[in-house]
Structures
1.
Amino acid sequence: MARSNYIFTSESVSEGHPDKLCDRISDAVLDAFLAEEPEARVAVETFATTNRVVIGGEVGLSDQDKLLKSMNGIEQIARDCIKDIGYEQDKFHWRTVEITNLLHEQSAHIAQGVNASSHKDEGAGDQGIMFGYATSETPEFMPAPIQYSHAILRRLSEVRKNGTEPVLRPDAKSQISLRYLDGKPIGVTSIVLSTQHTSEDQDSAFIRSIVEPYIREVIPQEWITPETEWWINPTGTFVIGGPDGDTGLTGRKIIVDTYGGAAPHGGGAFSGKDPTKVDRSAAYAARYLAKNVVASGMAERCTLQLAYAIGVSKPLSIYVDTLGTGQVEDAAIERAVAQCMDLTPRGIREHLGMNRPIYERTAAYGHFGRSPEKDGGFSWEKIDLVEELKKAV
């Protein structure tokens, strides 16, 4: 039986965190290739350290001239990302950072499993397991600790970038511990925030005076009490940040990207991968299905797993666990989701409209728990499958 009374903690990191900067560049490169060709094949990794960014991986377009043109624009894409995030430090500045582009054409042996057919028999880009999760504890159907950890950093990014709080700098991390009673979040036991700032003269108390009002804006007022512990810049000084202070690499924040540890994660990261890679597209589909299951009232929580083999179109297995909250049998939900959505790689992409440049925006503050956008961004957050699922069970 699942525990109902406990404390659970999740963390988030800002867009200026070195790993997130790398995710941002990788997804911006992906978007550039998808803008050229919706069926582009992209697997991009980015590494960042003091005064240097290295971009590598495999890319493929059907038109060689377009491929060469896109390759030539990679350096500017990276600089634009760094500039928008806000890095203008002596040892990491968007104008002067050295950028090395090591991208090359996709391996024909990797491509053959996907390219076997242009129709629904198209195989998965790799083997693997992917998980989706949803819970009724927040309006976004997300676990509260990760949702509010993201919300803190998004708000601080807004006031940093619009000039309201010029003391703040791009690199930051947040962490929220929530007390649960009868399985529902009821209060914050601790708030941890480390944010880069401008001067060594600015101590923890000074930084807290700046950030506390914004933290209180985004967390339910009744959850913060006199017993809530505050740990703001607990080491005291955080002036040297970003890739100048720590290296970054694409794909190292997969728990931040998903459910903050409240649910399982599959074997692969998301950023820099085109949607033929089921690491990404099937994880999005699993979230979409789990969210629609919870939104339909079939369960208060739902974990959904999909499994694939490289070159094979249909999922090898579909597994649902409603964690003791289901109103119908888990096996019935498994049959329903298979009936309501084509879970082949191409079926997923077509259902969710994934062959378009919508991925750079996912690189920070979570791939899930966001609002669907008019141009197709975050399409996996729609709850348009509810009635169909109800009819299928």
Note: The chain has a mean pLDDT of 94.
2.
Amino acid sequence: MSHNSFGHLFRITTFGESHGPALGAIVDGCPPGIELTEADIQGFLDKRRPGQSRFTTQRQEPDAVKILSGVFADPSGRQVTTGTPIALLIENTDQRSKDYGDIAEKYRPGHADYAYDAKYGIRDYRGGGRSSARETAARVAAGAVARKVIAGVTIRGALVQMGPHKIDRARFDWAEADSNPLFCPDAEAVARWADYLDDVRKSGSSIGAVIEVVAEGVPAGWGAPIYGKLDSDLASAFMSINAVKGVEIGAGFAAAALSGEDNADEMRAGPDGQPVFLSNQAGGVLGGISTGQPIVARFAVKPTSSILTPRRTIARSGEETEIVTKGRHDPCVGIRAVPVGEAMMAIVLADHFLRHRGQVGGGGSACCDPDRLTIKE
């Protein structure tokens, strides 16, 4: 199977299956001299880890990461990157492959079962193999490394819509998103969403969601015109996440209903001579290049396809049948997609930071310190 790598100068390759012995990632292109320990990665994996609330799959995985290569203790005793490939390993410990025995010859509607079989002539029915959301654990680990490369950038994600229910933007609070299991930034919406999702879960069904990811501290100048656009790479990154069916940057699809006056992000001169934008309909990217404003992106996640409600399908033999998917599944897979979205944002930004540095060096509006590889304002 090809196309398991993403990025250019900062490049990740993930491996492993949902019910295999382990998952992992190879991070290539990370500059040397950056302090990196397993603890730097583990916190982000814990945020994504299953079984932490009744709203996610009850599969119990510690998701403990091991760094196998690419770091070395310097003379001061710090563990730092060496500039060589960083290998990250996450062992699977709670697979229950027997849960999938009844569907070994049936295709789950809405899942990748049929498409994989049609392409490869074989599929891993145990949780979907590579098409399982379990693969995203490796991305989150790689994203933690990317965050170290762009240490001056803050990346945060939140669930802004569950099914038809949206947050109230007037109550948006990042601290609230970090304090509840739904990653919801609207305190008043949390209880309503919890009751709603309980009903969905108890009925054996599932529901979709919309996740918003914001990066602050990205200077103007990252990205490139036409085929190296920052926003096109972000769209590709988010669309590569399992179950994602739509991406928008800034105003996104809502821009189609705006006038030219409303859509234009007007500018005034700031006290430091840099422009101050009066709005951010562009989501921090113009012409494929960052403007210095927060980069704002949203992606839509479809409902989990593995549900208890009987669905019509066909068997591998072509026989018409029905299917019920047993096992442990997320009633709203969008919840655990929040840290995955943050990771993919970090990976794209780390790649564009290195690409920008390679093209313009230390000049321009986005200088970097070659000793610390952190962004200078």
Note: The first strand starts at residue 5 and ends at 6.
